Structures are given as C-alpha cells and as structure tokens.
C-alpha cells in the first residue's frame, strides 16, 4: 500500500476545514476586504500600539485585534475604537475570531 495515501487524505481534510461554508462566505469576503484595507491596517496598528498587551488574559503580547461585535453583523462598527480589543492569538481563538481567521 503506498504510504502517500494517508497524507493525501489529511491534506483533503485540512483543505475542507479551511474552506468557508456557503452561509459564511459573505461574512468571510467582508472580513477579507476589511483585512486588506489601508484603513483597517492603520486602525489595527494604532490599537495594538495603544494596547500592546492582551486585554483578555493580560499576560501576553497582543498580536490580533478583535471586533467585540462581529463585523459581519455590525459593519458600521468595524473601525470604532470601543468595538476593538487587543488580543493574543489563543484568546482571539477562544473568542471565536472566525470573522478574521486566516483562510
Ligand atoms: Zn490573551
């Protein structure tokens, strides 16, 4: 039995896992547009500059900016400072940062 079969199956599983579900595709595309916008890059950098430590655990360097109210549901709050939270990656994952997860 060729030993590349299990690897191929794993690759397919991973690919499937990262593909956005049809119901999420609009939110996924909106988040993708947001991430690549110059305005978001600027707001994000400013937030991480003002709050460089994770605002959830207070114990790690923040590397991600979380939208407290999801952009998909509240696009008008995408750049509002009160809706942003500096988080470390594990805290962001635990808050379900699905709308900003990398594909
Ligand atoms: Zn944290």
How would you characterize the overall build of this protein?
This protein is mainly alpha-helical. It has one domain. 45% of the residues lie in helices and 8% in strands. It has helices at residues 4-18, 25-36, 38-50, 89-94, and strands at residues 64-67, 84-87. It has a two-stranded antiparallel sheet with strand order 1-2. The longest helix is centred in the first third of the chain and has 15 residues, at 4-18. It is globular. It starts with a helix and ends in a 9-residue tail after the last helix. Residues 98-103 have low confidence and may be disordered. The site of zinc ion (ZN) has 8 residues, from helix 4. Zinc ion is lined by residues 54, 56-57, 60, 87-88, 90-91.
Descriptive terms for the model:
single chain, 103 residues, mainly alpha, two-stranded antiparallel ribbon, 4 helices, globular, binds zinc ion
Rg from C-alpha positions? 16 Å
What is the strand tally? Answer: 2
Low-confidence blocks of residues: 98-103
Question: How would a crystallographer describe the biggest sheet?
Answer: 2 strands, antiparallel
Taking strands numbered 1, 2, ... along the chain, how are they ordered across the largest sheet?
1-2
Q: Average pLDDT across residues?
A: 80
Specify the helix fraction band.
40-55%
Please give the count of helices.
4
- Proportion of residues in β-strands: 5-15%
Number of domains: 1
Which class best fits the helix and strand makeup?
mainly alpha
Order of helices and strands: HHHEEH
**Which geometry do the CA atoms define?**
globular
Bound molecules: zinc ion
Give the CA-CA distance, first to last residue.
33 Å
């Amino acid at each position: 039995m060729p030993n590349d079969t299990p690897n191929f199956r794993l690759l397919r599983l991973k690919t499937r896992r990262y593909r956005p579900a049809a119901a999420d595709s609009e939110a996924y595309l909106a988040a993708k547009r947001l991430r690549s916008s110059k305005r978001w890059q600027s707001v994000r950098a400013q937030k991480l500059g003002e709050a460089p430590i994770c605002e959830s655990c207070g114990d790690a360097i923040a590397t991600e900016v979380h939208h407290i109210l999801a952009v998909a549901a509240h696009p008008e709050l995408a750049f509002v400072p009160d809706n942003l939270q500096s988080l470390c990656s594990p805290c962001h994952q635990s808050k379900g940062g699905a709308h900003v997860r990398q594909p």
